[in-house]
Specification:
24% of the residues lie in helices and 19% in strands. It is built from 3 helices and 4 strands.
């Protein structure tokens, strides 16, 4: 889990504590952003972003950054889901 990073939730928030990014994602306590880090494209909703192949990747500090399907393909070589390919 150390290679994926950690999220700390303050005591005054829901689910306070330290969480690995995998658990934080499953608990849906990772803040969702609708703007791609690379190109600035905006997603219509979180569901649409998931359906269209948006992904999060950690930067050198462990912060999760959102990427649209096109940037995931060009930056990381990961093809978008079949439903979004032309």
């Amino acid at each position: 889990m150390d290679e994926h990073g950690w999220i700390t939730r303050e005591g005054n928030s829901d689910f306070p504590g330290n969480y690995c990014l995998g658990c934080a994602s499953l608990l849906r306590i990772v803040r969702w952003s609708a703007q791609c880090t690379t190109c600035g494209a905006a997603a219509r909703s979180e569901r649409a972003a998931e359906r269209e192949g948006w992904r999060y990747f950690a930067d050198e500090l462990g912060e999760l950054l959102p990427f649209c399907a096109d940037c995931v393909a060009s930056e990381f070589g990961i093809a978008p889901p079949p439903s979004t390919q032309a």
